[in-house]
Design brief:
Helix content: 40-55%
InterPro entries: A1-4-GlycosylTfrase_dom, Glycosyltransf_32, GlycoTrfase_DXD_sugar-bd_CS, Nucleotide-diphossugar_trans
Protein name: Lactosylceramide 4-alpha-galactosyltransferase-like
Keywords: Glycosyltransferase, Golgi apparatus, Membrane, Transferase, Transmembrane, Transmembrane helix
Shape: globular
Family: Belongs to the glycosyltransferase 32 family.
Bound molecules: 2-acetamido-2-deoxy-beta-D-glucopyranose
Oligomer: single chain
GO cellular component, one term: Golgi membrane
CATH architecture of the largest domain: Alpha-Beta Complex
Radius of gyration: 25 Å
Structural class: alpha/beta
Largest sheet: 6 strands, mixed
Length: 267
């Protein structure tokens, strides 16, 4: 078959040695190269950044922490952490790394008059089998101001400026789905309740209780960090949170890691 194809090709070439034919061949080979390149680049990208599944967000599991919709966070006195991976579902129970547990504990310890909410988008319950993660969570649950809560992503975003963004599936098909789900959620939580958002790798060394509202951390000289943010629940703070959500709903970008987090607050 290949032999025949080659024979046929030579025949065609011999029969009409005209420019258009060569030009067509050139264009075909160019297109082939481009297509192969695109497939190659895509497969490298998929290899480096495999799609992170957020399918656990859709599980309606009664066996999980109380849903945030059942709680009224105290205005200006709440610190929020978000865990947006599906680990606590795939492992069959709630999982925190030591670093994450350390972040939560440091926030609770240095701000005893604030509530610290750890919001899980994945269903999961605490099962104590005495692993490192279990011991950490057990210790955290002894703090009166730490609460573990579940967030139903669909219900949480519904009727908000990012409701359609979630429904569009763009977050789930992002190359950085877990990070980007967290990017959207942090602005949404502060838009809903105001207060402090911290990344799960932020260690709080001093009390944040006396600070005025509406601040964000510095990522670098040119960029504002989205890992430490405080917005008031009304006035300027709420306005800024809403601007961030509107920016996200319009310009969400799945292939750029920093665009939807630090990018939004910097813009
Ligand atoms: C964890 O503990 C439960 C009972 O609390 C037990 O059924 C389960 O087998 C344990 N899992 C592991 C991995 O030890
Ligand atoms: C989410 O919303 C649906 C429909 O309103 C409701 O049936 C369900 O109980 C809600 N889930 C949670 C966890 O609030």
């Amino acid at each position: 078959m290949p032999r025949f194809a080659f024979y046929h090709l030579v025949n065609v070439l011999n029969r009409n040695r005209k420019r258009p034919c060569l030009l067509t061949l050139l264009i075909i080979s160019l297109l082939t190269t481009i297509i192969i390149d695109i497939i190659f680049i895509n497969s490298i990208q998929t290899f480096l950044y495999p799609f992170e599944s957020l399918s656990c967000y859709r599980i309606e599991n009664l066996n999980t922490f109380p849903d945030i919709s059942q709680i009224n966070p105290r205005e200006g006195k709440t610190i929020f952490f978000h865990e947006t991976s599906c680990k606590s579902h795939t492992e069959g129970k709630t999982i925190l790394s030591s670093r994450q547990a350390c972040a939560v504990e440091s926030a609770a310890k240095s701000n005893p008059h604030f509530d610290v909410f750890v919001l899980f988008t994945s269903p999961g319950v605490f099962i104590n089998n005495n692993t490192q993660s279990d011991r950490s969570i057990k210790a955290l649950l002894t703090y009166p101001n730490i609460k573990f809560l579940h967030v139903n992503y669909n219900n949480y975003t519904e009727g908000t400026p990012v409701g359609n963004l979630y429904k569009s599936g763009k977050i789930e098909t992002s190359y950085y789905a877990i990070s980007h789900a967290s990017d959207v959620l942090r602005y949404l939580t502060l838009w809903k309740y105001g207060g402090i958002y911290l990344d799960l790798d932020v260690i709080v060394m001093r009390s944040l209780e006396g600070l005025h509202s509406n601040y964000a951390g510095a990522e670098s000289d040119d960029n504002v960090a989205a890992g430490v943010m405080n917005f008031a629940s009304d006035g300027l703070g709420h306005f800024l949170a809403e601007e961030c959500l509107l920016d996200l709903s319009e310009h969400f970008t799945g292939y750029d890691w920093g665009y939807n987090g630090p990018g939004v607050i910097t813009r």
